[in-house]
Every structure is written in C-alpha cells, then in structure tokens.
Amino acid sequence: MELRILGCHSATPKPGEFPSSQALLIHNQWILLDAGEGTQMQLRRYGVKFSRIKHIFITHLHGDHVYGLFGLLSTFRLLNRQTELHVHGPEPLKPLLKHVFQLSQVELTYPLHLHAVSPEKPALILDEKKFTVSSIPLNHRTDTTGYIIREKPAPRKLNTEAIKQYPEIDIWAYNNLKAGKDIILDDGRIIPNNELTFDPPPPKSYAYITDTAYLPDIVPRLHNIDVLYHEATFACEDENLATKTFHSTACQAARIARAAQVKKLILGHFSSRYRNLNILLNEAQKIFPETELAFEGKHILI
Amino acid sequence: MELRILGCHSATPKPGEFPSSQALLIHNQWILLDAGEGTQMQLRRYGVKFSRIKHIFITHLHGDHVYGLFGLLSTFRLLNRQTELHVHGPEPLKPLLKHVFQLSQVELTYPLHLHAVSPEKPALILDEKKFTVSSIPLNHRTDTTGYIIREKPAPRKLNTEAIKQYPEIDIWAYNNLKAGKDIILDDGRIIPNNELTFDPPPPKSYAYITDTAYLPDIVPRLHNIDVLYHEATFACEDENLATKTFHSTACQAARIARAAQVKKLILGHFSSRYRNLNILLNEAQKIFPETELAFEGKHILI
Fold first, then answer.
1. Domain tally for chain A?
2. Among candidates A41, A62, A96 on the partner chain, residue whose Cβ is nearest the Cβ of B13
3. Is the ipTM of this complex over 0.85?
4. Which end of chain A is more exposed for a tag (fewer CB within 10 A), N or C?
5. Residue B231 located in a structural domain
6. Which residues does chain A have within 8 Å of residue B66's beta carbon, measured at their own beta carbons?
7. In contact, A137 and A118? CB cutoff 8 Å
C-alpha cells in the first residue's frame, strides 16, 4: 500500500494548503479518501491516474471534505470516463450530488453508484479480492465515519527447496500449499504445510480517522493497524476548543494510537491557527513516539 | 482599476491551472468575477483581502465557474464575517447554494443577498457611487451573462493657477467647478468652466465575456472598452468544435475586439487540448494586434 496525502488542513485553506483528501494505492487500484476543494488538481500534481480510481470514500459532508467531489466527478465526464465509479458516504450525499449536478447541468457519461454508509455501526463496506474496507462511526457534529483498509492475507510462499525433497508432490498440489493446507502423500504420510511453505508478508492495514472528538471506543478496532491517520485539529492546550467543536487534540490522537498499539501515527486536519505544527508533533511524540505530521504531497509506504 | 486573473482555463484543470475566476480592484473594493474550484486559495495567493469583497458576479452555473463558491462562502463564515455579501448570477444559483449549504450544514454568520440576473436582456445591475456593473446576455449552452464594469466620470480637476486670476471666486464655488459648471461673477461676467478646470482622467471600463459562442450582437455594448476579456476556448481551425459547444475561437474573440474598437483584448478560458497557447495568440493578433493571453496570476492595470 502507498499513501499520498493530497490535503491535510481543516477549512480556510491557504496557498499550498489543501483541505482533506488522500489517495491510497492498493493492489494497482487508487482509493480516494475524502475530496476537499482542489482534489482534482492535487491528483494531477501527484500523478494519480483518474482511470484507476474506482472507489471514493467520504467521511462526512462538511465542505472541507466534499466540495472537491463535484469538480472531480465533472472532470471524469469531460474526459469521457466510461467505467463505473463507486462513491461511499453519508446518505445525504445522494441528494447533494443530485442537486449540484442538476443545477450545474452535469450529465455523467459513466455509471455512478452511491453507497450510503451507516453512521451508527461499523460495517464491512467493500470486499475486494485482495483487500477490504470497513467503516467506523466517529463522533463529530454531523454523521461521520472513518475508514479502515485491510489487505487480505497473501497466499503462503512455496519453499521450492523443501518441495524438491518430495518428487511425488504434484504441481497441482501447489495451490493447496499456498492456501495453507497439509499434503497427504499416496503412501498416507502427512507433510505439514509449514515444512513446505514460508509465511507470506503480513497483510498491511491503514485507518483514516477524521473528523472526530476524542473517542476511545474505537481503540479495539484500530488494534495493531500499521498506519493510523488521526485528526489533530488542535494543540493539547486547546482541548476545550476541541471538545466544543467535536475535534481532537494532538495528545488525544496520540493516546488513541498508544492504546491501539498501532505501528505509526500520522497527525492531520490542522487548524490554521498554528503557525508551527511542530508544537503538535512534539506533544504527540511524548505520548506516542512513532508520530509524524501530515503535509501536502507526503508519501507513505505502508 | 486593477485586474488579477485567478484562473483562466476551462474544465479539467491541471496543477497551476485553475478554472475561471478573476478579482477586479475598483475604488478600494474587490469585485469577484466567477468562482471556479480553488478560487479561495488563489485569492489568498494574490493577497486579495476577503473582507473587501462585497460583490460576486457569476456568469453561469457550469462547474468550472461556480464550484469554488461553496468553499469561499463557507470560509467567510469560518472567519466570522459579519458584513453583507451580494452574489449576482443566474436564478438557479439560489436553490444551488441552498441545497449545498443545507446538506453540508453551513450556517452563514453574515447576510448573503442573492440577485438573479436576467439571461434575456442587458441590465444595469449595480450602481455604486464611483462605478456601475451591467450584465450582457451571452450565447452558451445554459443561461449565461457577461459583465461590464464602468467607472463613472471623475470630477473635473481644478486649474489652481487659472482660478488665482479671479480672487472673487469663492472656495464654495469649487464643487460647482468640479461638476463642470461655469462661474458667474458678481459683476455678471461668465467664466467658462474649461478655463478654470482640466479634464479628469477618462473613466475606465472592463468587460468580462465568457462563456459564449461567437456573438457579434454584443459589439455595440463593448464599444471603446479599455480591456476586454473574451473567452477563446479553441484555436481558429477548431471552429466546428467551438460552434458545437457554444464556445469561441481566438479569431472570433479578435473579431469582436476589432469591431468594438476596444483598447486591449485578453484571451482566456483555454481548452486543455492546446499545449502551446501561442498558437491562439498569434491567430488573434493577426486580426487584432493588441491581444494578450491570460494566465494564472496575471495582473493588469486598467
């Protein structure tokens, strides 16, 4: 998996600072997470091929997460896209797109499927051959869900040297070996799978958690995640502002990361009030050292 | 008047290429013309103070002219704007903004006045102390109007040396002189105004004409305009595409400029199909030499 951060600032953007949007490359497919204003320019800037975006996930309908969707979907039409597109998000996304496209006369050239995501309970919302996407309800001023993307376990790797010791193992058995099954030879002997295969690389996982008030309930679902992006709109000393606006502080994000024992935390969705974001970074690192700041264009290999 | 071009490309933007938007500084007030995606970032980039924008004029509701309005108006709210804002544009702009703000939960902190502009006949739509804004119907695939901004004539300038020759002229008469009136002295002599004053600088004018098919009907209304921005989506050899999509070519824009005897023509709203826009420039200059290309960030003193 490869993550490209397209925008990681909260509203009131400045030059070079874009509102929320990320592109995740997974098994040759780009997944788009949120689409704040300017998303289509940022996708172009970082070479994300429009034709390889099949799924878009929207956390909630505040403008800084969705106002770039109209232009992006219109551009797909101008580029004469034919392949279907799936957009997952809160139920009112459907009337929103309907009204905007009707009043600005956009007639799509491609099938657009809108999938309403439940704001109340976690759900498996996409089950592809090699990965899944689950939703996770958050606690914001409007219906909001985070998303967790998990690779499925890869097939076990064949230990060709070990297999050679058993010439009676037919090539047809290899798929069973990759699937983790033991081998029963014609003479009845059982060769345990782990004698003939290696562990595959562990499946990777990424969680996109924004916007939300501090919500320790989500910790079990984030357990052992490889990379967690968690909003940190405010510095720790501004916790009262975070509480009031249903956002999180850098300390709160770090506490979630520590409790969930994730491998890495990325802070984002910064308020424009902080000139120096290292304040937020330092605060979070005291609680969870493996913390980094998001920035526009940041590339993360997961 | 000072014009700042924020975006001058048609849809499917690339990095650094923004869809239509311009800011015009006139007598200490910024006027915004169209608001394609990214307008708020561009306003910040070029130092246009949000608080000095009182009027926004939208030509039509295609996304590349209006999808940046949602974010801009939301940002005004986040900045706690209190002063009223006037947005002029096609009538369906009202339900469009209503739906978008309702579904994305934007509650404005300031009075927003939406003014429907007639798509059928030219009209004076803003009459300020020092300038006016008129609408001019265009010929596009949806209701579209261009806008003409004209300074009102400035007061005549006092010729202090000449006035000194007549000590009997009271200081209270100066306003009459500035207004162009003659002076009648106590002895009945009449001093003609032009003996005591100089001509003021001629009032300046700017026309924003986009998007439209070739429309010679507008020429009389553009007569003698100082700067004309006219869309030139296509090169001259692609006139069939222009006709089909209700856009103009560079040659057609130049013909309008020549017929209207404007002082300067700026071409814009470029299709992304042209790598080298100098083709359009050269074509237009053959017809109307005083032609320039628009580009993002271009600054024009009118």
1. 2
2. A41
3. yes
4. C
5. no
6. 104
7. yes
